[in-house]
Amino acid sequence: LRFVTQRITDMEILYEFISIGSIIRVAAVDPETGTEAIIQGPASVGQETLKRNAANKLFYILEKEKKSKAK
């Protein structure tokens, strides 16, 4: 279990890494909204790739929520 904090374009993202055998579960959380995105991937791809994929999913979820609130 490992926690990482990263700032991307003035947005802070918290990451949680949990190793399950050869799979890593990554949770990316926006601390301002509490929105969470979870991905799983092979440990062999590396932490940066997993972080990027989790962040992309988080951005997608945040955009989707923003569009649904605008309606």
Percent in helix: 25-40%
By DSSP, the count of extended strands is 4
Fraction in beta strands: 35-45%
Poorly predicted ranges? none
Taken from the alpha-carbon principal axes, the silhouette is elongated
The residue-averaged pLDDT reads: 89
Euclidean distance between termini CA atoms:
39 Å
* Main β-sheet description: 4 strands, antiparallel
Q: Strand order, biggest sheet?
A: 1-2-3-4
Q: Helix-strand pattern, N to C?
A: EEEEH
Backbone CA Rg = 13 Å
Give the count of helical stretches: 1
Structural class label:
alpha+beta
The oligomeric state of the chains shown is: single chain
Write a concise synopsis of the structure shown:
With about 70 residues, the chain is of the alpha+beta class. It is built from 1 helix and 4 strands, in the order E-E-E-E-H.
Describe the structure.
- This protein has 71 residues and is of the alpha+beta class.
- It has 1 helix and 4 strands; from the N terminus they run ββββα.
- Strands 1-2-3-4 form a 4-stranded antiparallel sheet.
- It is elongated and about 40 Å long.
- The chain starts with a strand and ends with a helix.
Mind sketching the topology for me?
Layout: E1 2-8, E2 11-20, E3 23-29, E4 36-42, H1 47-70
Antiparallel strand pairs: 1-2, 2-3, 3-4
Keywords:
alpha+beta, 1 helix, elongated
